[in-house]
Protein 1
Amino acid sequence: MTRVAVLQGGVSSEREVSLATGAQVVLALRQAGFEVTAIDVGADLGAVIAALQAARPDAVFNALHGRFGEDGCIQGVLDWLGLPYTHSGLRASALAMDKAAAKAAFAAAGLPVAPSRIVSPEELEAADPLPRPFVVKPVNEGSSVGVEIFRDGDNRRADVARGWKYDRRIMAEAYIPGRELTVAVMGDRPLDVTEIDTGHVFYDYDAKYADGGSRHTLPAPVHPAIREQAMDAALRAHQALGCRGVSRADFRYDDTAGEPGQLYILEVNTQPGMTRTSLVPEQAAHVGIGFPELCAWMVREARHG
């Protein structure tokens, strides 16, 4: 029997999300026949390493989200220990988590990206970095943490800048009207396109994780050409970053002038949520892959280095 250690929790702002993912993955892997040890990751890295050494896993399922879990840090530790792990490696994880670097990789691959620039909190406090409406977001956070939208008449910019508590590099990006789409990639296979309708201004943290926070329509009711474009772009983005295993690409689709409209890639999530109702498992189920089977495939694909 293959022994799997599931890393969950962590020390980022997404700790609770990671615990939810980890709990579901543990159950699914046990259903699939694996011997599973759950490890709650805290600030003591030595304790994490000791727990891994005690578990003696054949593979590690990385269910961590956010900083230190999906930015290359834990990947480097697992590489050092010689333990195969799920999802992307150190380089791809670090690249995807850095929104500025990832956007440069997307643009170099010929993928459509929204206009943007990097500013400091002082620059944001002093003036609008882009014509309104625009979005600001931390360069190194996930799950829409810290995202703000500024429209005409909004006077919060200076207050947001003075209270900024994230990476001092702030990405300012043109706001793209329209719809939210997402595509899961499993190895070299884009699964399908989901439309996310939140009732919120954008797909924020609460929309992602609160009960009833969003409604998923699968397959997305979009023009066939846009469906194909989104699936192709998701796979190309996965490859441009050097991802492996499962990833999820998020898009804005501007169809305000009619269909087919203009698609823009926002980011690639190398550690997407893995509860049974999360977007990736939903798409996998839609194409006939059950949750235990999906988790087992990820373990079989585990690598290090």
Protein 2
Amino acid sequence: MMKRNQMTRQKNFRKCNGCKLAVGIILAVVAGVALLRWYEQGEALRFVKKMGNGWNLGNALDCYGSQEKIGTVTDYETRWGNPVIEPELFQTVKGAGFDTVRIPVTWYEHMDAAGQIDPAWLNRVRQVVDDARAADLYVIINMHHEEWIELTDEKVDETEVRLCGAWRQIAEYFADYEEELLFEGMNEPRLTDSEYEWNGGTREARANVNRLNAAFVNTVRSCGGNNAKRYLLLPTYADAAQEEVLREMELPQDGHLIVTVHRYIPYSFAQKEDGTAKWSLEQKEDTAEIDELMEQLETYFLDRRIPVIIGEFGCRNRGNTAERVEWTRYYVRKAKESGIMCIWWDNGGKPEEPGKYGLMDREKNRWIYPEIVKELTEVEK
């Protein structure tokens, strides 16, 4: 009996040690994965810092609404009044001190009924990307005015299939491009034409943005080449920054992701069509919303080592260049203090006209507001 008890104790001891060893191995693996994620997130923060501040090539490759084929691919990019995109434009952007250009792209008018993207359109996007990369700029391409993106539970399955199908083609086409080319999955995904469109959406819609973001990441990662580690931008609902939107955003387990939001604040100065031309550093109500934005982005993302890009911001021309310069200086410096990069929204046209966001006269390839450009590019990196 004593011998049997001793054998039982030895067996239980070995079993216990085996369990401890197994648990130890599991904990070591978990710790290793966590350490790798921690390192990758730090690497992502450093990567975004190298991107400096940026400039949007708006109202060009993102033109839409033609309803039918209107001619060559360059006919599309000039449809909203801007000239054909030439390589010299990117040399001017780089020469001003910008390190990044965001190139909004609308794809759906260049797809057939089966969702296949017109090869001529893919080639034109590549030409523009190549010209920007030749100027040594980081490049972000996205899906901009895709009106088929719907966030209701009834429509999200269809949206996911279409989103993944399009991004699979884009990611495979650009698979060999280095990490200086970034993909942004969606632009301002929201409940269009609803009472919830711009006020933070619904819990259902926010959850479906998370779902589509995850599907986008999985699709790109499966497409081979440099897509395995390419940096990907994920929007919040509507690229908004209400607290419930930031709080409910979920990111896949991936060390090469960047959160993106758009903020034209304070609204009455930066975005409202009949808003005010007045803004002052001395007025607390003028700076409070900018301060709050940076604090919230720190709390929900930067403090967790998740990088953030403000993919669109800017303020309308109201004949108030001095105020715009002061606002820009404050905005980008507050962002840099938090480790956030900013990309100015430039929709081209005639920037000197009231209500415009543009900084560059694209016809003449020259800056109209070099004072604002200086504030964007000379902020300490």
Protein 3
Amino acid sequence: MANADVNDMFNDIKSESSSFKKKKFIPIVEGEYFCKIAKVETNIRDVKKDGNFKARVYNYTVEVMPENKKNLYNYDDDGTKCTTDGDRYVGYNFRGSVWRFLEPQEGDDFQANNAGNKGYIYFCEALGVKCPKETKKINGKDVEIHLLPNLTSDDIIGKPVISVVKKGRKWKNNEGFWKQFYDSKYVRKWDRPEGKIDNDLPL
């Protein structure tokens, strides 16, 4: 290509116009989010802290729903106090977990940890699953206890909940950098008129 042709080409480029607008960064913040439980996995673990226990752990993922747009969230932008509506977070996922400590059966060598199941009771209540009460004689005394159900995926997946999101525990990645995610610390009941949310339906 001749130099004149090259110059003409660059002259044409100089006459072109373009622009760029930086999208404003809005961080995730602690607060309450309207969600559905989109995923759950479960396994049994030995728990050696403060005793010798065994627990079934439910690791769940919540997904923020369109109804969240009515919420307002405050955040700090380089020293400036700002507010955003909840539509910004629709589709976000947060992970959480809840533990159900198991009762030892004959031949088991682990201990009971009834007090550790308070969070599991609240989880069941958030899902609308009842934990009936009964009176049981313990050490010669009548004690009222909750009967804890064995939750299945049908009891959990698609259920509408209000997720209370906070910063999780810090951890170090393979490169040696500290990371910290936002986790679903616990869920509360969301009395959504339409009830259960079909996971196959798009947002």
Protein 4
Amino acid sequence: GTPLGEHDRAINAYSSLVSKAESQFAAGVMKSNYWILILFIVVLLGALVSMATFRSPAVALMPDVTVKPLRSKANAIINLMGTAGGILVLVLGMIFGTGKVANQLMNYTAFVAAVCGIMLVALIVFMLTVKEKKWNAEMLSAQALLDAEEHNGSEIDVEVADQENLNEIADVKVDANEKLSKDKLKSLIFILASVALWFTGYNAITSKYSVYAINVLNTDYNTTLLIAQAAAVIAYIPVGMIAGKLGRKKTILAGIGMLTIAFGGAIFITPSSPSWLMIVLFALAGIAWATINVNSFPMVVELSKGGNIGKYTGYYYTASMAAQVITPILSGAIMDAFGTMSVLFPYGTLFVALSFVTMLFVKHGDSKPQSPKDKLEMLAGADD
């Protein structure tokens, strides 16, 4: 065949795969209504600031009301519900036809209104049902008992401990402002580096796959992403239980290995490949992501003290959100530089594999296997 010319090479660049009709339409609208871009930037900035304002405190509620040995299981429930929300949006996308090539210039007003309505309902339910102060007080008492038992090497009967005893135990807790030891700080840095790396790889795939699926594989992206989300939902609770047996670090490393295999395998998928093959790989990716996500956040807050959980939650989301902001830009630039989207999955595979290396250096924040007896009972009051 003839050598690949610059014109042909550029056709597969990421920026060129965004439909010409979309580009021309946007240029036409901007030419006569430049204020629309300004309004879009303002609204987008407001949305991002709003998300940053509520997301960290909302997730920090989990460690605020859950003792340390149970945080992987509790985080599994958080991720389960988050994934359920993602599935709901994908289902809405299928209903409104957002993934169809013919609908690239569709009006998204009804779709956005439906999503906003669901968020408002969730906010109302949250405000009516969550008893933050009460649940936090119960958790602090239970955690103080666990800490005292571990320190003294003897068990304390929750049933006979009165409030005065609980207060005395709580008073001897380590100061929340105490600095981390050198080894723990090193582990925190490596955990956050791992979080940034696997989000860099994973988010590049999820943010670009819609364009990749339509223009490279000629398929609807909603179905494949829905399969990945569904697989994650199935995996969240079992993964939390497995972490309680094997430890968080080993479980995360297994998840990173599976995600590397899934993204690495997708490199070889072409339009002529069986459709079920990509579904299997994305299902594996969904299970792997659940395995990683359930245990990473608890590892970070495990290093915190009772009064600074919110700060460590902020560390976690700074690392993850920074990666999610940078990687769509970086991956898109690399695809344009190479002139093809074929580098998408190698890019994701590389960064996920690098997170395996950094995770090997983490020595703290792991969970200690606990016997169900008396540990779970310490949370009995929280269910009242």
